[in-house]
Design a protein that fits this description.
Layout (H helix, E strand, L loop, with lengths): L1 H22 L5 H25 L8 H28 L4 H12 L3 H12 L3 H28 L16 H4 L2 H14 L8 H9 L2 H11 L3 H6 L1 H26 L3 H11 L6 H9 L3 H25 L3
Helix pairs in contact: 1-5, 1-10, 1-15, 2-8, 2-9, 2-10, 3-4, 3-6, 3-12, 3-13, 4-6, 4-12, 4-15, 5-6, 5-10, 5-13, 6-8, 6-13, 6-14, 12-13, 12-15, 14-15
């Protein structure tokens, strides 16, 4: 437990620093918007390409790990859809349901990469890449379908994203593209080119601190307080039920050791701010979504060390 705490403390300290810097208005909103874009489009892709391209992935059960994560995501989403009539009877409308579904399944890739690197060093990056490629296109598809089915007002039909945009944006995601490029370099035995590699390595060093502070700057704790009952239920699904489902499915698919631990930790990640963007664009309850993102990020500071200890190799 002490080892997990000492490894993960810097991750959440940087998130807290980002929150404090934003709250104190040390930097303006434009700075944080630029930092987020720089991290998403350049810093994290550089980190992933150079480290995955040269990683030793022998002995890692990549495909079973991906299958366990994808199956767990489908299971949790399926249970929520099955329970939707009961939830509606308790006052949860379509927009709120779409936000709850997103909150139960969409992980924060910035925090995931930082946590897996903190616990496993560079060996954590290939595992993070497998998880990202297996889960992010799937949760993007499910989240958009949920909004199209239950949340989107009729008045927005002409302007909101449609069915054709449910998968393609995820496949164009720079972080997913970087994972695939790094994997191709690794599997083909090419490795990282000699001149480009050192440049990417230097650039990638800024990814984790910048990305984590951007996560903190985006937190809206007031939104979490305003809808605390629904937020608490969604956080329970994301931080407890989802990793528990992955534990079971790792056993089913024969995933063990470090690969299993990484899969369970990835499933236990807080919710990504991307969920808020989707809710805003597609008629979901964006205020509720902001609260879920904030609450899961704060609570994950407690739950992730516990998950790391219980699910360790």
């Amino acid at each position: 437990m002490a080892s997990a705490l000492s490894s993960l403390a810097p991750v959440f300290a940087l998130i807290a620093l980002g929150y404090l810097l934003k709250a104190r208005a040390v930097f303006g909103a434009a700075f944080w918007e630029g930092a987020e874009r720089l991290t998403f489009y350049f810093l994290f892709p550089a980190l992933l390409v150079v480290n995955i391209g040269g990683a030793d992935v022998k002995g890692l059960a990549m495909l079973p790990m991906a299958a366990a994560l994808a199956a767990a995501t489908l299971f949790v989403a399926g249970v929520l859809v099955w329970l939707r009539p009961q939830l509606a009877g308790r006052g949860l409308d379509g927009a709120q349901f779409a936000s709850v579904l997103q909150g139960a399944i969409r992980p924060n890739t910035y925090v995931a990469i930082a946590v897996l690197v903190a616990l496993y060093g560079k060996a954590g990056l290939p595992l993070a890449a497998v998880a990202i490629v297996a889960v992010i296109p799937l949760v993007n598809f499910l989240g958009i379908v949920a909004h199209l089915r239950w949340a989107r007002p009729a008045a927005t039909t002409a302007t909101a994203p449609g069915w054709g945009e449910a998968v393609v944006p995820a496949l164009k995601n720079p972080i997913i593209v970087a994972c695939l490029v790094g994997a191709a370099l690794n599997l083909l035995g090419i490795g990282v080119p000699p001149v480009v590699g050192p440049i990417l390595e230097i650039v990638g060093r800024a990814a984790l601190p910048m990305g984590l502070m951007a996560v903190g700057a985006g937190l809206d704790l007031a939104a979490a307080r305003d809808a605390r009952t629904v937020v608490a239920g969604t956080a329970l699904l994301k931080l407890v039920v989802m990793p528990a489902a992955v534990v079971v499915l790792c056993w089913v698919f024969g995933v063990d050791g470090v690969t299993r631990s990484a899969a369970v930790l990835f499933a236990a990640m807080p919710v990504s701010a991307t969920a808020y963007v989707v809710s805003t664009q597609m008629g979901g309850d964006s205020r509720l979504m902001a609260g879920v993102v904030a609450a899961t990020t704060v609570v994950a500071a407690v739950t992730l060390p516990l998950v790391a200890m219980v699910g360790g190799p």
